[in-house]
Design brief:
Largest sheet: 2 strands, antiparallel
Number of helices: 2
Radius of gyration: 11 Å
Helix content: 10-25%
Mean pLDDT: 93
Strand order of the largest sheet: 1-4
Shape: globular
CATH topology: Alpha-Beta Plaits
Length: 81
């Protein structure tokens, strides 16, 4: 099943777990916040199947719940508390 993801930079605490778990998906931007490298954090490009297991683990381990994942591309990203 397709997966799409983005990082809510308003809630990201730069803990490093996502980049450690899924370095093919996440990296830090110039401000030290995590972002999705696949599509410049837009949530519009499908995560390759080979990375989906790492994506789900990163989402589950994110202490601030900043990693957003869904089965369809994101159109209007919003912070969810």
């Amino acid at each position: 099943m397709a997966k799409f993801t983005w990082v809510d930079k308003e809630t990201c605490i730069s803990c490093g777990s996502c980049e450690e778990i899924a370095p093919d998906i996440f990296e830090y931007d110039d401000e030290g916040l995590s972002q999705v490298t696949l599509d410049d954090n837009t949530g519009t490009k499908e995560v390759p199947e080979t990375f989906v297991e790492d994506l789900i683990e990163a989402e589950e381990c994110c202490p601030s719940e900043s990693i957003k994942v869904q089965d369809v591309p994101f159109k209007n990203k919003v912070s969810v508390e």
